[in-house]
Amino acid sequence: MLRRGRASLAFSFFAQGAAFALLVTRIPAVQDRYGVSDALLPVFLAAVPVLAGVGSVTTEQLVKRIPPSLLLRWSQPVVLLALVGVGAARGMAGLGVALAVFGLAVGALDASMNMLGVSLQRTYGRSIMLGFHAVYSLGGIVGASLAWVGAHWHLALWVSYLPVVAVLLPAALVGSRWYVDGDSGAAPGAGEGEREKAGSGGSGVVFTMLLPLCLVMTFAYIGDSTVSNWSAKYLQDVLGSSEQLATVPYNVYMVTTLLGRAIGDFGVRRFGAAAVVRVGALVAAGGFAVVAGAPGAWVGMLGFTLVGLGLCVLVPQTFAAAGRLFPGASDAAIARLNIFNYVGFLVGSPLVGALGDAWSYRGAMAVPMVLVLVTLVYARSFAPRSDRYGGGHERPRTADVGRGSNGL
């Protein structure tokens, strides 16, 4: 049962990675199809993460009454159908509705996926969250590749999106039968009042304790959005690369993110989450330093590669740390933490762009470098609680010892 639950959740991460990549990598085509002006495009793009934040907040309230698995089961099809809507809508109003639905559903999807991932990790008694996010990265690579095919063959957006959705949607629905909610934050046998209390957690106390992780999440996504939005421009305009070479850094970044997450769980089990986060922050900051001081395009690509290897561990471990920090209210903590995913995404690209225009793009690259380094101050928040084994090994609950050996 656990094995199926883990595999089905991994597929959900994969499908979401592919869907999101298909959307963001075809933004120029979306703009051309609907005649969205350069001035109006940022409004459309900003609306998606804002509404995703609303969806995440709503999810926190919904999971007090229904299990995260049910939210995930129905939010993922909505995301996929909204993707088709983006490609097939009639007029700018239709595009706005499709993007709004996409954003709201993505917030619920991201939050519920990570809720299930954290609860499964708690059940297994060992680190598995990085593996789920590695599959998300793989989905992103596949989605970006399919988007390139669509652009290369000048396919209409709906023609590019529909076959992918036709495959992913039924597979996700079938796989959702095996989602495992696990320990969602309330002790087994707890009464309704106790579960309500566990879900709410006490907003003031929870947010105060959660704040360091919220900052780490924000800084990580500022770094991520810097690479995704500015790496090509930086290589071409600042380091003098060709247009073709300028497209390489983000692809390399995605591949190194996949590789780093694929092996990251082993590092957490061996050295502990706090140590992995410290190393990741140092490597990512070093990568941004290399980018800022690069004499040429190839050194700049090396810097972006290091950024990917370092940043890739921060987000999954931040979700996992929230689950450890609030074992009695993990769903609420993850939903609130997930909001700062979108805060970082919203802040990162405009921040670097404004600093680049007003100052220099080399100097702008120092900003995510410093912010990622601040993560070192909060690394202790990633350490296991006192009731767990040292070295990052989580103590399995007695009832789960037998089940934990059935991992993938």
TrEMBL record:
Location(s) in or outside the cell: Cell membrane
GO molecular function, one term: transmembrane transporter activity
GO cellular component terms attached to this protein's record: plasma membrane
Residues of the Major facilitator superfamily (MFS) profile domain: 210-408
Major place of residence: membrane
Record-given protein name: MFS transporter
Organism domain of life: Bacteria
Region listing for Disordered, in residue ranges: 388-408
InterPro entries linked to this entry: MFS (IPR011701), MFS_dom (IPR020846), MFS_trans_sf (IPR036259), MFS_Transporter (IPR051788)
Upper lineage: Bacteria, Bacillati, Actinomycetota, Actinomycetes, Kitasatosporales
KW Transmembrane helix (keyword) present: yes
Native organism: Streptomyces humidus
Membrane topology summary: Multi-pass membrane protein
Gene3D superfamilies: MFS general substrate transporter like domains
Keywords: Membrane, Transmembrane, Transmembrane helix
Spans traversing the lipid bilayer: 39-58, 95-116, 128-149, 155-180, 201-222, 271-292, 298-322, 334-353, 359-379
Biased composition (Basic and acidic residues): 388-400
